[in-house]
């Protein structure tokens, strides 16, 4: 990698960032040099990869840069960069993005991956929109379509899928109610037209037939062949079967779980310019996770657009 930034606009951004960290006392001690070096390397990498305008940076470039960081050789010793170094670089980029937003250099932020050491493989354990469409195309019954629609399209946790009841599905308003999410928090999730249709078909057809086999009243949304509530493990096994039905070696190797679908919808919402506040509420986070740090110009969002129509 070359030693100096060539693009004039990037040189200006770096000077602005230097002023930004100086005013906020981020430049005290070794911190200032660390932040400057991190942003310099980031901008030079973008230059070398044909991105010469900061507004052209997308989640695709950020994921590629992330992969570069975790695999690039350490210049001071053998091996790759230390875990703490990678975390520091990503933190510096979050400060850089904050500066860009405050100066209105960009209208919305870009994706900044989180780093978890040995858990870095998790970045690959998500599905693209095309892969979601593929799994959806190979669904063999209404239950499978509904599971994919709700787990992905509504971003529910495994425990939330298990505890979901029919009364929580508001078809008339296009909303799904999570009555007790993580931390016992209630939230309302918008459903796309595709999700609504999948849910409607399942309720009126397959679920209705399964409930007829039940010896007691069952309000559970996802029910097994005996008409009883499906547990989280059974739901995960169902998803695994759905993945295998695609006959896609690449998909099977990803070892996708229900939680991976939740990460997938978060990524796709961000790519479609959903805002940090919308994603936080949609996922039911008390605070937005570092992996979902995206900034926005307009925080008023419409209902979730169908991403696998």
UniProtKB/TrEMBL annotation:
Keyword Membrane: no
Keyword field: DNA recombination, DNA-binding
InterPro entries: DNA_brk_join_enz, Integrase-like_cat_sf, Integrase_catalytic, Integrase_recombinase_N, Tyrosine_recombinase_XerCD
GO BP annotation list: DNA integration; DNA recombination
Taxonomy, superkingdom: Bacteria
Gene3D superfamilies reported for this sequence: 1.10.150.130, Intergrase catalytic core
Domain Tyr recombinase: 122-307
Keyword Transferase tagged: no
Example of a GO MF term: DNA binding
Family to which this protein belongs: Belongs to the 'phage' integrase family.
Name recorded for this polypeptide: Site-specific recombinase XerD
UniProt organism field: Chryseobacterium limigenitum
């Amino acid at each position: 990698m070359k030693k100096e930034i060539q693009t004039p606009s990037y040189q200006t951004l770096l000077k602005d960032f230097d002023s930004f960290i100086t005013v906020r006392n981020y430049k005290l001690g070794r911190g200032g040099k660390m932040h400057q070096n991190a942003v310099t390397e980031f901008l030079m990498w973008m230059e070398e990869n044909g991105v010469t305008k900061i507004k052209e940076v997308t989640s695709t470039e950020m994921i590629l840069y992330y992969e570069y960081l975790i695999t690039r050789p350490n210049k001071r010793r053998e091996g790759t960069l230390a875990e703490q170094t990678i975390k520091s670089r990503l933190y510096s980029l979050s400060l850089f993005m904050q500066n860009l937003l405050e100066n209105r250099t960009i209208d919305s932020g870009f994706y900044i991956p989180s780093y978890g050491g040995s858990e870095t493989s998790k970045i690959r354990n998500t599905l693209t929109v095309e892969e979601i469409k593929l799994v959806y195309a190979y669904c063999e019954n209404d239950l499978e379509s509904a599971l994919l629609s709700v787990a992905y399209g509504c971003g529910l946790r495994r425990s939330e899928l298990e505890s979901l009841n029919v009364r929580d599905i508001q078809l008339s308003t296009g909303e799904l109610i999570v009555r007790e999410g993580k931390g016992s928090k209630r939230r309302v999730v918008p459903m796309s037209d595709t999700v609504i249709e999948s849910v409607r078909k399942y309720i009126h057809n397959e679920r209705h037939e399964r409930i007829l086999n039940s010896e007691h009243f069952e309000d559970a949304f996802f029910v097994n062949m005996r008409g009883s509530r499906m547990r989280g493990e059974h739901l995960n096994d169902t998803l695994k079967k759905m993945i295998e039905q695609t006959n896609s070696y690449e998909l099977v190797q990803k070892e996708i779980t229900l939680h991976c679908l939740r990460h997938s919808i978060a990524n796709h919402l961000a790519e479609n310019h959903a805002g940090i506040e919308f994603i936080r509420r949609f996922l039911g986070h008390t605070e937005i996770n570092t992996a979902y740090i995206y900034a926005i110009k307009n925080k008023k969002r419409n209902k979730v657009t169908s991403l696998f129509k």
